[in-house]
Write a structure and sequence with these properties.
The complex is a heterodimer. By secondary structure, chain A is α+β, with helices and mostly antiparallel strands. In chain A, about 45% of the residues lie in helices and about 10% in strands. Chain A has two domains: about 55 residues; about 80 residues, Glutaredoxin, CATH 3.40.30. Chain A contains seven helices and four strands. Chain A has a four-stranded mixed beta sheet, with helices on one face. In chain A, strand 3 and strand 4 form a beta hairpin. In chain A, helix 1 runs antiparallel to helix 2 and helix 6 packs across helix 7. The longest helix of chain A has 12 residues. Chain A is elongated and about 50 Å long. Chain B is about 40% helix and about 15% strand. Chain B contains 24 helices and 18 strands. In chain B, strands 2-1-3-4-5 form a five-stranded mixed beta sheet. Chain B has a five-stranded mixed beta sheet with strand order 11-10-14-12-13, with helices on both faces. Chain B has a four-stranded parallel beta sheet with strand order 8-7-6-9, sandwiched between helices. In chain B, helix 7 packs across helix 14, helix 8 packs across helix 11 and helix 19 packs antiparallel against helix 20. Chain B starts with 6 loop residues before the first helix and ends with a strand. The chains are: A alpha+beta, B alpha/beta. The interface between A and B is large, with 42 and 55 residues.
């Protein structure tokens, strides 16, 4: 596991924007994650110190919602949909192919930090099942071999 | 654009927008491209690029309008060409290589490419139908013939990023009427008379809900739109948010006026970035026009909205969990009463409704309660919006009058089951709903009939499954989802869901025991009776409904250790039919487990000790020489 230097100054801009606003815990965490790619421990501690929100509340929220990641992610995030429509149209086969060929476990990250893969439950394009989203780009009607080839082209 | 300061300004804006639209339709060429998330996933962004390049290189003028999802997902990408004064001509499944031909023939030469076009759509009353070629009108297409599009009326028709487009189609006229001609209790009375029931799934009378909040004491009050659409297989809300965001704003402002709230939140799941972007554009435009903010249309009523992004928790579709989420806490529901209408966001009176409910509200105010009550059935007036998908030919978004028989939706609107397979069941109500078999196809689709039949209306996801789906595995799939999404607060759901999943897993692994069915029923009864919220109460619904209608499948798994649908890996075996095998070696090469052996041009053999039942051999065999039992 590599350790990284976290630049905490960038956090100040975010915290300033939400200062005094109600209902800002989740938006602050979302913006922080956009900034660093995940929620580093140092960032959470800094947020707690500067906003007065107890670290326990922040951790409680960060561990509850699926969106938040507490460990560093791969450069390319693969989200394979296993919603009902995608499931009946063969989503599992795609997951297995990706795990096998790209050595990235579902819900985990490849050892070279090139890929992370998540199983998600419906991104709402059921008419084009099975679907996957890679780095915010939607891929429709994917097939195991073809999709793996497309993923291999990502750096 | 100067603000609309009063009722006259609003009426005037409508007239001007209509005029501009008429002019544009009369004199200019328009190209509509379906650019909802589904269209983009099918390649619409690329298609748009190609079209622009083609227009430039040919020196042609046309206005390109991105529209939301018109509902025909199975035909995306969709490109419509509208020549001056003529109906839109829809081209379907458009690929980049088709563009030059479509542009040259249709735009330059005025000739419709009949082998690529599939329908025509008039965009104003009295527009002459295209008769020089045989091109069905949308109303004649099986997919649209039975539909009555009210909540979806603008999707695929207007530009969701342009408020003028919304105004031209009667947008904000309902708001004008509500604020300047009606009092809050008149609005509530109208909503009650319409009989509109909540479209989020619970089906509670909207007018009554608004009335509770209106009467509650406490200030400030809040309006919340539940746009967390978490049901896998549901994309109705997404399409409305992307394709017609202003309809939600209008509905929420009217609700705010009716209950006495001046602030609202749209809680939208983060997995819908396009919807969030379109909402924010719409809100900015509404503020510019003075339709959000202080003293809206000179009425003295002020209201504004925030978009709040969800963080990936299905349970936050439950209203008290949603409220907890906005408050910055874990999305855990709480006991009710008190209901949010009395004590909601930050303990203040809060009205929470689904996207589709807010989309329908302005139409009721504009056309009247009686108009709405005359559609559908007496106890379920209006229309139902469904996302139809799974093993059905015409997958997409539909809006039909309540009361239509289930079979008509699947076989007429949906065009039946593809690939020559047989219909087995239809799943409604998402992972907390139920499935109905062939014998229930006559069931009218309305809240009460569906509940009586053993399913639920839910938010609108409707998934068709065929004979290749195993009902036990299907139930296990829903349990996997629901138990993972349990918030963990109450034991019946937290433990019950886990135990149900364990039992189903055992059964699909061929290790089911005779007591398992009784155990499933007991745990389900307990979860239904004692879970804190609907997630726990309804987690057992899929397994209970599949037990009710497909008990024999469970028994086959448990007693005969067989999977009739040939899906459960532990219960199926693959083998080669020696007489059909040509020895081409493709299956041996593709087998990930290395379980197939055989010489060239000799019948191959599958070693069952190594075989993992993945099914790849059967898929790649070109000679139908592999069977599964």
């Amino acid at each position: 596991m590599e350790s990284e230097e976290i630049d905490l100054k960038a956090l100040d801009t975010i915290l300033k924007e939400y200062k005094g606003k109600k209902g800002s815990v989740i938006p602050i965490l979302q913006r922080t994650q956009t900034l660093y790619g995940y929620l580093p421990k140092e960032a959470l501690i800094a947020i707690s110190e500067k906003t007065g929100i107890p670290l326990s509340q922040l951790m409680g929220v960060a561990t509850f919602y699926a969106q938040f990641r507490l460990v560093r992610q791969g450069r390319n995030l693969i989200r394979v949909c296993d919603g009902t429509a995608c499931h009946v149209r063969g989503a599992q086969k795609n997951v297995e192919a990706i795990e096998e060929s790209l050595k990235v476990p579902a819900g985990g990250t490849s050892t070279d930090y090139r890929y992370s893969m998540e199983i998600v439950y419906c991104i709402g394009s059921c008419g084009l099942a099975p679907v996957a989203v890679v780095n915010d780009k939607v891929y429709a009607q994917i097939e195991p071999k073809k999709f793996v080839k497309q993923l291999e082209r990502l750096k | 654009m100067p603000k609309l300061l009063n009722s006259n300004d609003c009426s005037h804006a409508y007239q001007v927008a209509q005029e501009n639209l008429k002019q544009r339709q009369k004199t200019g060429t328009t190209i509509f491209i379906g650019m909802g998330t589904c269209g983009i996933a099918a390649g619409a962004a690329e298609i748009e690029e190609f079209i622009r390049q083609e227009l430039t290189s040919r020196g042609l003028q046309a206005e390109i309008i991105p529209v939301g999802c018109i509902g025909m997902c199975f035909k995306e990408p969709l490109v419509d060409i509208q020549l001056p004064g003529r109906p839109r001509v829809t081209y379907s499944n458009v690929k980049p290589k088709m563009i030059p031909r479509i542009i040259e023939e249709h735009l330059e030469k005025g000739r419709i490419v009949t082998d690529l076009a599939f329908g025509q759509l008039a965009t104003s009353k009295g527009m002459k139908k295209i008769t020089e070629v045989a091109l069905p009108e949308y109303s004649e297409l099986p997919f649209y013939h039975k539909q009555t599009r009210i909540a979806l009326r603008n999707c695929g028709i207007i530009n969701p990023k342009d408020i003028e487009s919304y105004i031209a189609n009667q947008g904000y006229r309902a708001l004008n009427k509500a604020l300047n001609e009606m009092k809050p209790d008149e609005i509530i009375s109208e909503m009650k008379s319409s009989g509109l029931r909540g479209r989020g799934g619970a089906g509670f009378l909207i007018g009554a809900k608004w009335e509770f909040c209106h009467r509650a004491s406490g200030s400030p009050k809040y309006i919340i739109c539940n746009a967390d659409e978490g049901d896998p297989g549901a994309f109705m809300d997404r399409s409305i948010l992307e394709g017609d965001p202003h309809s939600i704003l209008e509905g929420m402002i009217i609700a705010g006026y009716a209950v006495g709230a001046s602030e609202g939140y749209i809680y939208c799941r983060a997995e819908y970035p396009l919807a969030i972007a379109h909402l924010q554009t719409a809100m900015a435009q509404a503020r510019e026009y003075g339709l959000l903010g202080e003293n809206i249309l000179g009425s003295g009523f002020s209201f504004d909205l925030h978009v709040y992004e969800g963080a990936g928790a299905f349970v936050c579709g439950e209203e008290t969990a949603l409220i907890a989420s906005i408050e910055g806490r874990r999305g855990e529901p709480r006991p009710r009463p008190p209901f949010p209408a009395i004590s909601g966001l930050w303990k203040k009176p809060t009205n929470v409704n689904n996207v589709k409910s807010y989309a329908l509200a302005p139409q009721i105010i504009l056309h009247g309660a009686q108009w709405f009550a005359n559609i559908g059935t007496k106890k379920s007036p209006g229309t139902a919006i469904f996302a139809l998908s799974g093993k059905v030919n015409n997958t997409g978004l539909i809006e039909v009058p309540m009361g239509i028989p289930l079979g008509e939706i699947i076989f007429e609107v949906g065009g039946g089951v593809p690939n020559g397979r047989t219909f087995k069941a239809v799943q409604t109500g998402g992972p907390l709903g139920g499935c109905l078999p062939e014998s229930a196809l006559n069931t009218p689709v309305d809240f009460d009939s569906l509940a009586e039949a053993g399913a639920t209306m839910g938010s609108g996801g409707m998934i068709v499954i065929d004979d290749e789906t195993c009902m036990v595995e299907f139930a296990k799939y829903f349990l996997t989802f629901a138990s993972a999404e349990s918030c963990g607060k109450c034991i019946p759901c937290r433990l019950g869901g886990t135990r149900l999943l364990e039992i189903l897993t055992r059964i699909t692994d061929g290790k089911g025991a005779p007591e398992d069915i009784e155990l499933i029923e007991e745990i389900s009864r307990n979860m239904r009776a004692s879970s804190l919220c609907a997630l726990g109460q309804l987690t057992p619904s899929p397994v209970m409904s599949s037990l009710r209608f497909f008990r024999e499948e469970y028994e086959a798994h448990i007693y005969q250790k067989k999977c009739p649908a040939k899906v459960c890996k532990a219960l199926i075996t693959f083998s080669v039919i020696a007489e059909k095998c040509t020895g081409c070696m493709v299956c041996a090469r593709d087998c990930p487990a290395g379980a197939i052996t055989g010489e060239k041009r000799q019948a191959h053999v599958i070693n069952l000790d190594i075989c993992e039942s993945c099914g790849i051999c059967k898929t790649v065999c070109k000679f139908d020489a592999i069977i599964v039992e």
